[in-house]
Amino acid sequence: MSIKPKMVQWDPTDIKKELLKKYPPKVARKRAKQIMINEATECEAPPEIVANVRTIPGIITMRGCTYAGCKGVIMGPTRDIVNITHGPIGCGFYSWLTRRNQTDPGVDGENYIPYCFSTDMQDQDIIFGGEKKLEAAIQEAYDLFHPKAICIFSTCPVGLIGDDVHAVSRKMKEKFGDCNVFGFSCEGYKGVSQSAGHHIANNQVFTHLVGENKEPKEGKYKINLLGEYNIGGDGFEIDRILKKCGITNIATFSGNSTYDQFASAQHADLSCVMCHRSINYVADMLETKYGIPWIKVNFIGAKSTAKSLRKIAEYFNDPELVKKVNDVIAEEMPEVEAAIEDIKERTAGKTAMLFVGGSRAHHYNDLFAELGMKTISAGYEFGHRDDYEGRQVIPNIKVDADSRNIEELEITPSPDEFKARKTPAELKALEDAGLKFRHYDGLNPDLDKGSIIIDDLNQYEAEKLVELLKPDLFCAGIKEKFSIQKLGIPMKQLHSYDSGGPYAGFKGAINFYQEIDRLVNSKVWSYMKAPWQENPELTATFVWE
Ligand code: CFM
């Protein structure tokens, strides 16, 4: 089959105008700064993108809240910590098993992930305060499970009424003596999105947990894998590959993790950052306090996986590891290449749109590129400017009142535990050879010129974009799934993977190719007509007529 010509010829500047046309002037001006044409030639918009700012009230955003980022994203995947939501039952209920972070319950079988713990606040608690109820809930969880740790998550009303979750946690920790209890001021409104929740979670994990286990860890090549959450089993596949290469993963933050992994993270010799947005804070803090350098990796896409493994081997600079990594890649790649060869002729030239939280809109571009597909529009729900433009812009990011609201920890080198893993000369030699430390280029350089980059895309713009550009595939989350499919465009969930996965690593890539092939080449979409396409206006009569 030959490569299909592009369905629509379009000028990105016109598309941007169309997207903004219906907005009141003030809203349009604000949104214009969040919609960017890659390597823009337009003059009305500044060259940089505006990101990590409040969503305009009334707009149906794709974002989640700060509590979701803290409790669900960062702390949720750790199996042996009891996570208690302090708040009305809805917050706990709707964050109960809705993110597909898988776990292996291990030999101890200590796994609280299937549970939903909440203080179930009532009107009375809002009026008279909920601290007593929280104390009782912590006690009950301790009596029932005797866990290693109990974490308390604040929801919006907790911040509004002023319950001190930290004081209650301290009191209970002291009382128990053998259970680490700490809280998070991660009220839903605390930041402009779930991104603030990541930062709050990282700060508390670093303060209350990292470094607690002083027992040295075995392993020749010890790494931390930061920002990998084992969605659909991704982490299992990455761990399989790392193990095969002889690389020891001390701690994953936080997919398939345990309390002890966080507590031992300071024993690793390199931090590998997958999701830059959610975890770069921990990578920086581990480096400052313990001397562990960090590099950016990406295990989404077979080529990116191979590249990331080679980067790790380069860092350890041991011919034995370099050889092992190359052998593993040589062993895994033929199956991947065979799958690409089979599928690519059916997918090449097709177009995709990627709108996911903070990293996947970038990472999945690599998988589509392997299938010969092109990302014509992409963006993050809650990424910051550095996730788009690269970390070099960090010093120029305007710190607004909302970001000032989130604590920045002052970290200093640990007097007895800081150990530089490489000498400055060794680091320099590695850098000269092309290995970049503390470096992330962001999404923009990987997208073609003229692609449309949109921050905090909303429901209206998503539908408009699909109508105008008619992509072959739209990727986002459950909130977008059915409205997009009703437009006759296949939709792939990149948060939950539509119950599929893994998509990371070599085996994951093959899974992904096959699913995308089935989706974009299914005839069903062309047969489908939405009701309003057949009958543009609904008519009805009253029962008494
Ligand atoms: Fe990082 Fe994530 Fe993402 Fe994220 Fe998320 Fe997620 Fe995501 Mo959903 S940590 S930023 S807050 S890669 S839950 S595993 S899929 S929005 S793009």
Automatic annotation (TrEMBL):
One of its GO terms (cellular component) is molybdenum-iron nitrogenase complex. Its EC number is 1.18.6.1. Gene3D superfamilies: Nitrogenase MoFe cofactor biosynthesis protein NifE, C-terminal (3.40.50.12380), Nitrogenase molybdenum iron protein domain (3.40.50.1980). It is an enzyme of class 1 (oxidoreductase). Residues 65-520 form the Nitrogenase/oxidoreductase component domain. It catalyses: N2 + 8 reduced [2Fe-2S]-[ferredoxin] + 16 ATP + 16 H2O = H2 + 8 oxidized [2Fe-2S]-[ferredoxin] + 2 NH4(+) + 16 ADP + 16 phosphate + 6 H(+). It comes from the Bacteria. InterPro entries: Nase/OxRdtase_comp1, Nase_comp1_asu, Nase_comp1_CS, Nase_Mo-Fe_asu. PANTHER family: NITROGENASE MOLYBDENUM-IRON PROTEIN ALPHA CHAIN. Tetramer of two alpha and two beta chains. Forms complex with the iron protein (nitrogenase component 2). Belongs to the NifD/NifK/NifE/NifN family. This is Nitrogenase protein alpha chain. The gene is nifD.
